[in-house]
Write a structure and sequence with these properties.
Blueprint: E1 2-5, H1 11-20, E2 30-33, E3 35-38, E4 57-60, H2 61-135, H3 146-153, E5 163-167, E6 176-181, E7 189-195, H4 206-211, E8 225-233, E9 238-248, E10 257-259, E11 262-264, E12 298-300, E13 303-305, H5 308-311, E14 325-326, H6 333-336, E15 345-346, E16 350-351, E17 354-355, E18 358-367
Antiparallel strand pairs: 1-3, 2-4, 5-6, 6-7, 7-18, 8-9, 8-18, 9-10, 9-11, 12-13, 14-15, 16-17
């Protein structure tokens, strides 16, 4: 038996396919879809009419369009719900991140506040300590200088030892420590420079020389002293140079040096052999303050020198066109100046016409007794 039935679910795909392939869908027309099914013949039954019949079923186009519209609305609704859910989750994620950042900022702010409180507390403690420190009564000095100390103690102490004492020089506002040499040539010497091996670095700017540097700072102002320079050579020969008057100008006059009469066995290297080598009355020079008189340069032997401090390895001294004395020379000078001797220099102390190599030197001063 041959028969035909209409299947709606199989019609829709064909309709969708037809719309995508350009098949015209006139609402006045209908689409006919048929599908054939074959059943085995029933025993003893004849086909009706003796012919194979077909039965057709039509679905109107407006029904198909309605079905498609409903399906589109359903898909759009699902998509809209998905977008709303995604938006809600995104906003929640952003809100969580912002809250986490705010918590971190709050923690950091609390730490900064705590640190500022500690700094303020520490600053208050420092100010309180400074106030207490300056409120303390100044340390009692032993005398104006080592000469004064010797004079004050020799009547009560059988033997005054050398060592560190506290002095308060005239015309100064504070007390400080100095080393007093009480055993050498009658004692009472204030040591202003001591080099035991010549290795101390004197490559210093002007401010260091003004403030004083080393283990003991010494500043003498407007006071006249005797200057004694003790020299020791590499082969342990001892010599000295002494000046019966020694004083320095103020800083406004660049600490110009003034020397009295010379006595000793090492020669008067401060004054040299002629006026061009004379360093008496010369102002002090440093690597950054040049008062050496080489304007624009000095001719020393066959060499042209623009700065004596540079020539002497950036050291400070009373240079006058360099001169023959520099007790502040640094140990690197000999190598850096290609064999020119500019280390601890006292060029008038010679042996067989050759300047001695000096390993140690001490400069000390002692007050001159005056009628003033």
């Amino acid at each position: 038996m041959m028969w035909t039935t209409t299947v709606l679910l199989m019609v829709l795909p064909h309709l969708l396919s037809s719309t995508t392939t350009g098949i015209s869908t006139d609402f006045n027309q209908s689409v006919t879809v048929s599908e054939e099914f074959s059943d085995p013949p029933v025993k003893g039954q004849k086909p009706l009419g003796g012919s194979k019949g077909r039965e057709t079923c039509s679905i109107p186009c407006d029904v198909t369009v309605k079905l498609l519209r409903d399906e589109k609305h359903s898909v759009c609704g699902q998509l809209q719900q998905s977008l709303l859910a995604f938006g809600r989750s995104t906003r929640k994620l952003i809100r969580d991140v912002m809250e986490e950042q705010q918590r971190a900022l709050d923690t950091l702010g609390a730490q900064v506040t705590e640190l500022m409180t500690k700094v303020q507390t520490l600053s208050s403690e420092v100010q309180r300590s400074n106030t207490e420190m300056y409120a303390v009564k100044p340390v009692q000095s032993h005398g104006r200088d080592c000469s004064d100390i010797k004079d004050n103690l020799e009547s009560v102490v059988p033997k005054i030892p050398s060592g560190i004492y506290i002095v308060h020089p005239e015309n100064t506002d504070s007390s400080f420590e100095v080393f007093c040499e009480m055993d050498y040539m009658g004692g009472g010497w204030t040591v202003i420079q001591r080099r035991t091996d010549g290795l101390t670095d004197f490559k210093r700017p002007w401010s260091d020389y003004t403030d004083g540097f080393g283990h003991l700072a010494v500043n003498q102002k407007d006071t006249r002293f005797q200057l004694h320079i003790a020299l020791v050579s590499n082969d342990d020969v001892i010599s000295y140079a002494s000046y019966d008057d020694f004083r320095l100008d103020s800083e406004t006059q660049f600490f110009g040096i003034h020397l009295g009469r010379y006595a000793g066995s090492a020669g008067d290297a401060f004054r040299g052999y002629d006026q061009d080598q004379n360093q008496d009355t010369a102002p002090f020079s440093a690597s950054d303050v040049d008062n050496d008189g080489c304007n624009p340069f000095c001719s020393i032997g066959n060499r042209t020198v623009e700065s004596c401090s540079t020539q002497h390895n950036q050291t400070g001294w009373w240079f006058n066109q360099c001169g023959l004395a520099n007790l502040n020379g640094s140990p690197e000078d000999e190598e850096q100046n290609q064999g020119q001797r500019t280390h601890i220099l006292w060029d008038t102390w010679r042996q067989n016409g050759v300047a001695r190599t000096i390993k140690s030197v001490t400069m000390k001063i002692r007050r001159i007794v005056t009628n003033n």
